[in-house]
């Protein structure tokens, strides 16, 4: 290589190193954003920092007597606190705890119907969630007041917490209506004569922050839902006295409040009362101050972020409901159809057709497989079915081809080619194959003696064009290996039984699959269009009218990735390749004949269960965390354990069908918490790659060659037929 070529190669490696973190950064940012939105939702639903303690009355000796005996409005902004009253024939009707999306509009409609105005003491949580209602209040001439952000009893809170409650409440009002307000009403309050030594310092501090505190003269106690008559009676002042009336437009069913307004408003107007805002009644300047500049945009940003959080959460809840249905439907289908498949192929006398006894060709594409290739080839030599083995060396640089040639085994040939990729290696092997049935396997896989025989028996049915074998994890001793073992037995092989019955098998595994040469030639052989050539060729077979079936006894033992990095690389390629294959064969949705049948059954199922469902499945765990933090904790845990129990039942049934030991299922709960999240991030990364038009290259996984299959492997031989390599 020239010096300039070396410099270019070094530069490319540096670029790849710089770009590598992006593979993890985008999915991680998405998860962080998702958790941030859920935290924000908990924040504005009073699930963070809420404090609903209510204290018992304390002594009143430190409260000025003129405050206790004065009016319901306390102005403590100056050095000398004042108690103010509403003039005669004036009614200030106030509503606490809103806005509520159901009841506040009805209350506003009643006030508008009778040309009455009032004061709405809104909480920050509700104002943040329903800013349009706050804006409507201002637009229709009503006055706003603060009722804190989270509705705690401020007597229990520090000054910093009180400041936070006020500022966050103002932020929500500013974002919703573009104003600030100088009115305040403390939660859990009623009459000013109820002020005691615990509440009075809070009122003084609120005044020092520039707020007027408004209590009330009459309390409708509508929150108790005592009936319309009782609400009206308690709200009505004596004679012509002016009054501040306390009602609620949120916090529960307010139908009685709305019904009471329909009588209370006209009745009091007939008695000569005017319903007005508090500042109008007191002859004071408006409580509202318009907000402009950065403070306004800060408020708008807040309400906008809350709106996004609420909408996203609503979508997530809907997605979670969909997931719940899909979980039951998918597992129900898997159990029923897998049982039907097992019962069919295991019944006495079952056969696909005439026994297949003719020799077959086994293709072994290999690229730098020196650790595994000898075990792979020797396992084939133990086969109880007549075979020829063609090892296609795809430009290996580690002596893979030489290892096979030095074994001097009968019926084993080596085909060498420059590095061209797995699809071209398989096509090259097909051209060199001598038989009409072709078995394909990976260079890191080993077969049992009966694997080939079991794999080719379905070709006794002339309608069968391809057969999927039973790929199993050989290195299952590590935790990652055990998780993949569960995934292979349950997620892959149980799925294949279901898809076999439905006639839409999506993938013949590259580790163990068989094809008719005629079927391969009719669809044009292995394609390089996608990174999942096994899924691509399987879909092409379906569209060409061939049956694709599953042979459960054709077991192959493959070496699964042993590190998170290796697993990530493999599953990223699988996920992205599957998306490519679905997109490539999308026209099957509108075609007729076999292609249309597969397109309208197979493609939706594959898209749903292999692409969309795994992307949404982690919502179960996200909402588990949300429920544990914000509640209801008990119901959340029960729901999650219910989903886990369904998965455990399916996994146990799959293990029973495959005659696997149940001990590996001990790690199932941990797999659901950790492994599923990794698969989710991988799939999310694949989506991002697909949507951004990115391209992904083949990535070679590191192998150890530790996997061996049950059965004898013949000793090395120095003579035999067909031992010479093929150029």
UniProtKB/TrEMBL annotation:
Asked whether the UniProt record includes Transmembrane among its keywords, one would answer yes
Establish whether keyword Transferase is in the entry. yes
Q: Name one Pfam family in it.
A: Glyco_tranf_2_3
Which PROSITE patterns is this protein grouped with?
NODB
Q: Name the chain's protein.
A: Glycosyltransferase
Q: Which organism is it from?
A: Streptomyces lichenis
Checking PANTHER family in the record gives: POLY-BETA-1,6-N-ACETYL-D-GLUCOSAMINE SYNTHASE
Alphabetic keyword roster: Glycosyltransferase, Membrane, Transferase, Transmembrane, Transmembrane helix
Q: Which one of the record's GO molecular function terms can you name?
A: glycosyltransferase activity
The membrane spanning regions, by residue number, are 315-340, 601-626, 638-657
Its organism's taxonomic lineage begins at:
Bacteria, Bacillati, Actinomycetota, Actinomycetes, Kitasatosporales
The EC number on file is: 2.4.-.-
Family per similarity comment: Belongs to the glycosyltransferase 2 family.
Q: Where is the NodB homology domain?
A: 89-276
InterPro entries linked to this entry: Glyco_hydro/deAcase_b/a-brl, NODB_dom, Nucleotide-diphossugar_trans
